[in-house]
Amino acid sequence: MNDAHIAALIGGGTGILGVLLNNICIAVMEGWSNRRKGKRERSYLSILVVSHLDRFANGCLSVALDDGTAYGEPAGADGCHEVTVRAPTFLSLEIEVEWKVLPESLMFDILQIPDKHASIENRLDGILEFDDPPGYGEFFGARQRDYAELGLHVSAVAKRLRKHAGMPFRDDLSGELSRDSRMQQVINKIDEKRAAYEKRMATSSLN
Fold it and tell me: Looking at the whole model, is its pTM more than 0.85?
């Protein structure tokens, strides 16, 4: 092998090495750019969706506190209890974000919220159809409890989303804690009332 051949081989090897190094640099830059883009998308999604989730949870609390009265009196005509607070809405698929940046379990729980909400409304429609005026006690008890339970679920999902995105938690969470504790109080109160009623019915059936 003469010097010319050696020089050619060295030149060819240098060229190949240069191409490889260039491709590696491009791949690294693209990976870095994609990570930055993914982080921006995740941050944008989290900020926007957490806001929607918190508003929905606040709406659930309002429904959970609605017993069909206004200022201590039945809200409807002829002494009937009537809904005074409209149910909140959460239309996840109308929020324009890149949902695929989330882990599957978290994405599923968020996108399933409208289905859970619809299931509650369908159940309440069936209860109301056969409930008795003027108090509609079964309907309002179920409505208050179901929305309190849904609100707690949504609040927990919002916390998971904040944690996943590395969002800083607010220094003052008293409002959120108060909201969640009030919804839990609604559930406890209704459960205690139902347990007492069932106990009375069981006792009366023995007499």
Answer: no
